[in-house]
Structure formats: structure tokens, C-alpha cells
């Protein structure tokens, strides 16, 4: 059984490739290394002792994708490839629409041409916007606050239309909450280029001394300690959810959305404390202004994924922080 993983050299993609290879699947990866490096895939092979097929290819490159499908019998696709920086997307919306939406359309067209109609798509909790918490899959989505979020919402809608037009498709929309942590080998983890936007890589770089100080975005929210609440999930738990989703789509047709989160909300200060405990380091931080577009609090109701995908998150916040730190400590200059 061969799974095509777009964006497989990225943070979540690489952890998913490890689980797929360990689970006995053959894996082909398509990545243009815009936000990753090929060495990540060497490390995936080192962890698993297995090899995968690599294609240095952009998902907007129809000819390149057709080559992948003609050289391999692809049974299903896990589609991670995309740009994901919320702030950047407000400045460069066309880049985000072109890369994420046009790229996805090319991928879906090539899948249709090669009669591969099974896909797991990386969506995001951001599609819920201002809904009451916890978020549930049957809530109305689309009230999003950034072009990035809109690309996720639009691609979900496009996949919905594809299914309506052809009930032979089998589609799983995984709405991720906040992935953190790393593989416990310390070989792969989150390794963003430049200054990180997200909390955990920022914290890790402050702890290792590469950045001077963390700014906590807002201390005056109506939450237990004034800082924002999020549902953090270990990236390995998230990766495993993809295997559950693949097993389901290989067996069925239809389109279903699933929340992939722990169902527990932690504040930014909770994360700082847990990280300090896991790393034994005192973090230098200040409370600053709110970041535009941040919601005060959200977390998942993951009951549907628990029941229908038979998926359960295993790892707690201590393990998430310990593994993030282990990765940072082992790779102070990132993956080269
Ligand atoms: P990442 O940037 O680490 O991985 C994405 C990978 O896709 C990278 O390796 C990048 O080089 C590749 N890529 C980008 N555009 C491409 C293109 N046109 N053609 C081929 N490859 C391309 O990001 P990640 O954190 O692993 O996220 C994976 C997916 O999950 C993304 O779609 C992201 O939007 C989604 N997601 C991430 C989060 C998060 O917090 N990390 C939350 C919700 C959803
Ligand atoms: N935060 C800080 N300081 C920082 C970075 C973040 O205080 O330097 C805070 C944020 O204000 C937020 C929390 O840490 O309260 C988490 O922020 P992240 O940027 O790590 O994550 P977000 O919740 O903003 O965004 C994540 C994903 C997006 C996705 C969104 C909703 O990165 O892709 O969840 O699913 F769209």
C-alpha cells in the first residue's frame, strides 16, 4: 500500500512519514523544500530503518505530480503541502491563495486523472473562527481571520464539492489544534526558518539562548491567568491520527471532518511553566500587547475522532515540552 505524502519533509509530515513507514506502508514524498530541508527525510529513514521515495517537486507542477502518479500506484494521499504563517498571509494573500489553493486544485486534478480518490487533508481549528468552545465538527465554519485560514476553509469546500460531484471519493478533513513536541529520538522536530511565529519554537530558541526573550502576547484576556488558552497536541499523537484516517478512507467513501486535539486548554503561562520544569531552564519572558487576530481561548471536542477513527491522544503537556526541548538541545542550529 503506497501513500503519497505532500509536504512530507515538513514538521507534521515528517512525523507522519515515520508512523507510516513503521506501520508497514510504502511512502512517496513530494516537497519543494520551501520550509524544510531534504536532510529531514534522511532522518526519517534513520529512525525507521526504512526508505521512502522522494520527489523534489512543487504541487503546482502538474507534470512533476503526474510523474509521481505514473511511477507509483498511489493508494491514498496525505496532503500537508502548504504555507502556514498566519501573519505573512495577511501581507501576501495572493501567494497563499496560489500556493495553497491552486496547488491543491492541481493535486486533486492529477489524483482524479490517475483514479486515486482517497485523501486526508491538513485543515486547521482556525476554520471555526468565533464559535463557542469547545469546537465541534458540526459547527458552521468559515468565519476566519486570515487569508491562511481562508485557504483551509476554501480547500475544505472544494473537497466537499468534489465529493458531491463524485461519491467515489473518500475524504478526511483533519482539523488540527496546536501541534508541539517532537519525535523522542530528538532527530526530527519543528525547525522553522527565521524567527518563529509559533509559541513552542519561540520558547525553545529562548531557552537555548538563540533569542533573548519571549513576549507573551497579552496578559489581559478574560481567562484564568489573563493569557490565551489553546489545545496543544503532541505531534506524534497528531501523526498517528493520520494513520487512523488513512485506514478509514481506504475502507469507505464519503467526506468527514475530525478535530484532532487533546480537548484540554492550557494558557501561555501554563506552557511556560511546563517547559521550565521539563528543561530545568528559567525562561526570560515579558507580558506584551495582544497579537492582532488571536482568539482568547479555543480547544477541541475530539469525541468524533475518538469514536469514528478510534484515535486517542496519549501524551501530556510534560511530554510535549520535554520532547520539544530534547529536539532543540540536540539540534541547536536546526537540521542541516
Ligand atoms: P511545514 O511548513 O513544516 O510543512 C509544510 C511542507 O510543505 C514543507 O516541507 C514545505 O516545504 C512544503 N510545501 C509548501 N508548499 C509547497 C508546494 N507548493 N509544493 C510542495 N511542497 C510544499 O508545516 P507543518 O506545520 O508541518 O504543517 C503541515 C500542514 O498542516 C500545513 O498545510 C499547515 O497549514 C497545516 N496545519 C499546521 C498547523 C501547525 O500549527 N503546524 C496547524 C493547523 C494546520
Ligand atoms: N504566543 C505568544 N508569544 C509568541 C507566540 C505565541 O504569547 O511569541 C501565544 C499566542 O498569542 C497564542 C499562543 O501563544 O495565544 C499560541 O500561538 P501560536 O502562534 O503557537 O498558535 P496559534 O494558536 O496562534 O495558531 C495555531 C497554528 C495556526 C492555526 C491556528 C488555529 O499555528 O496554523 O493555531 O488552528 F491556524
Summarize the structure.
With 336 residues, the protein is α/β, with parallel strands linked by helices. It has a domain at 2-181 and 231-262 and 301-314: Rossmann fold. 40% of the residues lie in helices and 17% in strands.
Assign the CATH topology of the domain at 2-181 and 231-262 and 301-314. Rossmann fold
- The CATH superfamily label of the domain at 2-181 and 231-262 and 301-314 reads NAD(P)-binding Rossmann-like Domain
Query: Helical amount among residues, as a percent range?
Result: 40-55%
- The CATH architecture of the domain at 2-181 and 231-262 and 301-314 would be 3-Layer(aba) Sandwich
What structural class do you assign from the helix and strand content? alpha/beta
What does the largest sheet look like?
7 strands, parallel
What is the alpha-carbon Rg in Å?
19 Å
Q: Name the ligand types.
A: nicotinamide-adenine-dinucleotide, uridine-5'-diphosphate-4-deoxy-4-fluoro-alpha-D-galactose
Poorly predicted runs are none
Features:
336 residues, Rossmann fold, 7-stranded parallel beta sheet, two-stranded parallel ribbon, 11 helices, binds nicotinamide-adenine-dinucleotide, binds uridine-5'-diphosphate-4-deoxy-4-fluoro-alpha-D-galactose
What features would you describe in this structure?
By secondary structure, this protein is an alpha/beta fold. The protein has a domain at 2-181 and 231-262 and 301-314: NAD(P)-binding Rossmann-like Domain (Rossmann fold), CATH 3.40.50.720. The protein contains eleven helices and 13 strands. It has helices at 11-22, 39-48, 62-71, 86-91, 93-113, 147-165, 199-207, 235-251, 268-279, 303-308, 317-330, and strands spanning 2-6, 26-31, 53-56, 76-79, 118-124, 170-176, 178-180, 214-217, 229-230, 232-234, 254-260, 266-267, 285-288. The strands form four sheets. Strands 3-2-1-4-5-6-11 form a seven-stranded parallel beta sheet, with helices on both faces. Strands 7-10 form a two-stranded parallel ribbon. Strand 2, helix 2 (39-48) and strand 3 form a beta-alpha-beta unit. Helix 3 (62-71) packs parallel to helix 5 and helix 5 (93-113) packs parallel to helix 6. It is globular. Bound molecules: nicotinamide-adenine-dinucleotide and uridine-5'-diphosphate-4-deoxy-4-fluoro-alpha-D-galactose. Residues 84, 86, 124-126, 149, 178, 197-199, 202, 214-217, 228, 230, 268, 291, 294 line the site of uridine-5'-diphosphate-4-deoxy-4-fluoro-alpha-D-galactose. Residues 7, 9-13, 30-36, 58-60, 80-84, 99, 103, 122, 124, 176, 178-179 line the site of nicotinamide-adenine-dinucleotide.
Amino acid at each position: 500500500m503506497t501513500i503519497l505524502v505532500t509536504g512530507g519533509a515538513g514538521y507534521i509530515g515528517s512525523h507522519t512519514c515515520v508512523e507510516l513507514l513503521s506501520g508497514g506502508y510504502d511512502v512517496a514524498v513530494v516537497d519543494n523544500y520551501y520550509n524544510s530541508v531534504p536532510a529531514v527525510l534522511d532522518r526519517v529513514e534513520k529512525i525507521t530503518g526504512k526508505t521512502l521515495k522522494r520527489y523534489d517537486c512543487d504541487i503546482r507542477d502538474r507534470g512533476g505530480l503526474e510523474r509521481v502518479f505514473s511511477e507509483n500506484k498511489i493508494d491514498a494521499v496525505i496532503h500537508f503541502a502548504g504555507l502556514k504563517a498566519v501573519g505573512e498571509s495577511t501581507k501576501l494573500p495572493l501567494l497563499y491563495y496560489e500556493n495553497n489553493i491552486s496547488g491543491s486544485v492541481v493535486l486533486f486534478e492529477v489524483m482524479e486523472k490517475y483514479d486515486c480518490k482517497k485523501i486526508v487533508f491538513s485543515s486547521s481549528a482556525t476554520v471555526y473562527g468565533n464559535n463557542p468552545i469547545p469546537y465541534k465538527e458540526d459547527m458552521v465554519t468559515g468565519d476566519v481571520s486570515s487569508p491562511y485560514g481562508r485557504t483551509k476553509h476554501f480547500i475544505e469546500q472544494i473537497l466537499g464539492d468534489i465529493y458531491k460531484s463524485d461519491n467515489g471519493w473518500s475524504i478526511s478533513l483533519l482539523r488540527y489544534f496546536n501541534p508541539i513536541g517532537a519525535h523522542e529520538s530528538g532527530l526530527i522536530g519543528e525547525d522553522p526558518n527565521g524567527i518563529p511565529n509559533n509559541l513552542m519554537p519561540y520558547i525553545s530558541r529562548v531557552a537555548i539562548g538563540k533569542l533573548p526573550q519571549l513576549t507573551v502576547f497579552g496578559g489581559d484576556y478574560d481567562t484564568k491567568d489573563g493569557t490565551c488558552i489553546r489545545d496543544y497536541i503532541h505531534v506524534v499523537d497528531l501523526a498517528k491520527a493520520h494513520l487512523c484516517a488513512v485506514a478509514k478512507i481506504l475502507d469507505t467513501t464519503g467526506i468527514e471532518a475530525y478535530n484532532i486535539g487533546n480537548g484540554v486548554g492550557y494558557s501561555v503561562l501554563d506552557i511556560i511553566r511546563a517547559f521550565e520544569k521539563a528543561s530545568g531552564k528559567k525562561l526570560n519572558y515579558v507580558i506584551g500587547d495582544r497579537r492582532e487576530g488571536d482568539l482568547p481561548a479555543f480547544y477541541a471536542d475530539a469525541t468524533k475522532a475518538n469514536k469514528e477513527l478510534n484515535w486517542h491522544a496519549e501524551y501530556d503537556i510534560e511530554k510535549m515540552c520535554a520532547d520539544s526541548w530534547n529536539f532543540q538541545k540536540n539540534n541547536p542550529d536546526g537540521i542541516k
